[in-house]
Design goal:
Elements lengths: L1 E2 L6 E5 L6 E6 L12 E6 L2 E6 L2 E7 L15 E2 L17
Parallel strand pairs: 1-7
Antiparallel strand pairs: 2-3, 4-5, 5-6
Length: 95
């Protein structure tokens, strides 16, 4: 996920190694850049949902079963020139 590039007001989803943008959505963090925001990523099976402050920015459904991510890594990226601090990061397995 990438978000907060001042003036763009979009969040993007990319998946490696392709690096192409798979989904775009709104980004409300640039409306209040000095405040704390709650970010949430939910991935269940072939669907990924990105929320900012409880509002869905986008949902993406992978239609190719061969490309569904089954485990590994994730990244949350602030766009240049933003600075941010992450705290209270939690990762849960959803049975």
């Amino acid at each position: 996920m990438s978000y907060f590039h001042y003036g763009w007001a979009t969040s993007n989803l990319r998946k490696s190694p392709e690096q192409k943008i798979l989904a775009k959505g709104s980004d409300s963090t640039d409306e209040k850049p000095g405040e704390m925001h709650k970010l949430r990523i939910t991935k269940i099976d072939n669907k990924v949902v990105w929320e900012i402050d409880g509002v869905e920015s986008f949902a993406y459904v992978e239609s190719d079963p061969e490309k569904v991510l089954k485990g590994g890594y994730f990244a949350i990226r602030l766009m240049n020139p933003a600075m941010g601090i992450y705290d209270n990061v939690r990762v849960y397995e959803i049975p």
